[in-house]
Give the backbone structure.
Amino acid sequence: MRRSHAEDHEAGASHSAAEEYGEGERAHRVAYSALKHSYEKVGDHWEKKDHKGPSDERARSGGPNARGKSAEGVDTQATKKHLMDVARRLDIRGRSTMNKGELVEAIEKANRRASRR
C-alpha cells in the first residue's frame, strides 16, 4: 500500500526528531508540528497547504512553553474563502453565516468526527 505525501513527510520528520530527541513524546510533538507546518487536516486526511507556516496561535508561539489554543490541524491563517471551501467539502451546515473563528471550530469538530470513523 502506498503512503500519501503527508505520511511520507511525517515519517521523515519523525525519523529526524527521533534522532535529535530520542523516541518519545517530544519527538512526536516535533514531528506533528512539522506536519502541521505544511499540511492542514481536512476530515480524516491531511492536505498540502497553499503556504508553509504555523497553522494556529499555539504553533506560532512555538517551543516547549507554547501559548494559545491548538486548532487541531486546521489552518487558522487561511483566508475565510479557503475555510468556506473546506467547510463546504465537509458539508458543514450553517457555514454561510459563520465568521472565521466559527468556521475553524466547525471544521475542527467535523475533522474529529471524520477521524473517529
About this structure: The chain has a mean pLDDT of 84. The longest strand covers residues 39-42. The two ends are 20 Å apart (CA to CA).
